[in-house]
Fold:
Amino acid sequence: MLTSKGYIIQLEALMQQKQAMPGAKELIHAFQMENISYLILTERSSVTADEILNQLEHCGIYGVRKENIYTSTMAAVEYIVTHDKKAIDVDYIGGKGIRQVLTDTGFHITHHHPQYFFVGMDSNLSYDEYQDVFTQLRKGSQLVSVDHRRIQMVDQVEKIGNGTIVRMLEYAAGVKAMNFGCGTRILLKFASKHLPYSLSETIMIGNRFKKDIVPALQLGMLTFYVAGSEEMMKQGINDEFHPDYILDDLTGLLR
Structure:
């Protein structure tokens, strides 16, 4: 079922809880053997591309390169650079993956009146550190969410996600975040610019209907929904609004 078009794959469709999903190893191998362009998309921006590659290899998924990884922080900085030529001073909370993208882009990280404040997941922050973010937002910094998960799974336990933290900051500071997390069309738009195809020639593969498939459908992309354990009726799938293809797992793409 593979074509020579470009593919964008949600990271969680390949790997969950440190384990490769069925068909993930074979799919990436097929991409490499057939020289197919692809990106692995994630809003787990707190980790670096190298760390994501190590996680994939730990699961037995080999051959992925850094240029195949695209994070929500990358989309955020590309959008800001495109739309705000005066943007230079930024600050952030989150892991070193965010810092690496910001510095590689040429932004100046400062705690003194940053123009943009990037917020990614950091489970070690204190109340006082969130207070510092709140203070900068009240002084006029633009809030930027690069991980909008309301809940995240850690070692098979549900925990508060970064999206919940962002909403707390929005409410406290009376501001609205720029959101580049999964589920946004802007993330897919900027990711697709790194493939040699138009959006209509790019295929989206995801395992979450609302966050992966819906924005892709809205952009006119061909979609493959890996249903897994999601109950399709509860996701809003119906005769009028549905993925182009529904798969039990990734092996369906190889038949």
Remarks:
- The chain has two domains: 6-43+183-253, 83-179.
- The mean pLDDT is 93.
